[in-house]
């Protein structure tokens, strides 16, 4: 099946300025990423069998003859989003979902502009986590024909977290950092763990960070009471990012800036943010934006099963969570969110006065670059190019999602 998509402009978001390839491209953790703006005016994109086969400007080349068009010529076209921190949606939890449940998540996310996501765990008994990872990995490797967003890897949020800043993670299931336990988790996940949250102050955290990084897993600092010095030590052993900045961290203090202060002032580190106006006050969003900006900021949802659902009771891993008036809580503690990335993008623009071209890297190329992967067919991507899967969005100037496409199909 062939179709042509029309737009007012195309923001490709190609971090390297190159073309899609079959290989994974890794970059050093400490480098200065480009902030390219390869915008094509009045673009047309030819899609065939779910892939982009040609990109051109109507100013330079005529449209292909006898091919149906979908006209978004008043809107910006851009890559679909990548969410590196999401536990579920549409009533489904990634640790419990079967194929039908994961497909429900896939469809829901695609309707909100997300093209790829890391299925994120929550701390549970080790045996239960191993079984969940085996099931998740089996679903991910079964085939690439997802109805919407593609689960392209796993984010381990736990069990190597601080007791003091555990949030809703069950205290009895937290574990000290352990290379053998990590290797068991990675083996159960069939090597599909891409990211792991780790508290820097825990014994052997630095050893585990170095080991995980050597095995191709990015480390994110979070759920932590770490000092700035402890955070620096973990970064020196490979940590690349911070998990939901400000949340479940030592409070920012002028004498001991802690993990939040370190992350905000360390240019080499990426930093997640849950931009729902609930987890982080808009004034702190502006502070975070000024420090991390288009180069190192990453918007995430931390969404759980209640996302897209009415008020009621839901699951987060094995935890009971109540949704009421937009807040998901377990025993009075925030338990993830019901945010979607399209809404996070709009919120950031509104809270921090950010333009759409400035904000787009935070949901596209930054998460891909943080993971050390970009433009890899059927894995992770940072942009749109000939040969890539046709996962893209149409947005208006306020950042509002107008249309979302998965493999060329309107979601």
Please describe the topology of this protein.
Blueprint (H helix, E strand, L loop, with lengths): L1 E10 L27 E3 L1 E6 L2 E7 L11 E11 L1 E6 L1 E2 L2 E2 L5 H13 L2 E7 L5 H17 L7 E8 L21 H10 L4 E6 L6 H10 L3 E4 L6 H9 L4 E2 L15 H8 L5 E4 L7 H15 E4 L11 E5 L2 E6 L2 E4 L2 E2 L6 H12 L3 H4 L5 H6 L21 E4 L5 E6 L2 E2 L1
Helix pairs in contact: 2-3, 5-6
Descriptive report:
- This protein has 411 residues and is α/β, with parallel strands linked by helices.
- The chain has 2 domains: 109 residues, Urease, subunit C, domain 1 (Roll), CATH 2.30.40.10; 283 residues, TIM Barrel (Alpha-Beta Barrel).
- The chain has 10 helices and 22 strands.
- Strands 1, 2, 3, 4, 5, 20, 21 and 22 form an 8-stranded mixed sheet that branches. It has a 6-stranded parallel sheet with strand order 6-9-10-11-12-13.
- The protein is globular.
- About 7% of the residues have low confidence.
CATH class of the largest domain: Alpha Beta
N- to C-terminal distance = 16 Å
Given the helix and strand composition, which structural class is it? alpha/beta
- Main sheet record: 8 strands, mixed
Low-confidence stretches: 15-36, 375-381
Shape: globular
Query: In total, how many domains does the architecture comprise?
Result: 2
**CATH architectural arrangement of the largest domain:** Alpha-Beta Barrel
Which properties best describe this structure?
411 residues, alpha/beta, Urease, subunit C, domain 1, TIM Barrel, 2 domains, 8-stranded mixed sheet, 6-stranded parallel sheet, 27% strand, globular
